[in-house]
Amino acid sequence: MTKEPPATGDQRRSQLLRGVLDLCLLSLIAERPRYGFEFAEALAAGGLELVSDGSIYPLLARMERAGLISSYRAPSPSGGAPRKYYRLTEAGDAELGRGRADWQAFTGPVGRILTAATTTPTPSTGENTA
Amino acid sequence: MTKEPPATGDQRRSQLLRGVLDLCLLSLIAERPRYGFEFAEALAAGGLELVSDGSIYPLLARMERAGLISSYRAPSPSGGAPRKYYRLTEAGDAELGRGRADWQAFTGPVGRILTAATTTPTPSTGENTA
DNA sequence: GTCCATTGCCTTGTGGCGCAAGGTAGTGCG
DNA sequence: CGCACTACCTTGCGCCACAAGGCAATGGAC
Question: Do the Cβ atoms of A96 and B8 come closer than 8 Å?
Answer without folding.
Answer: no
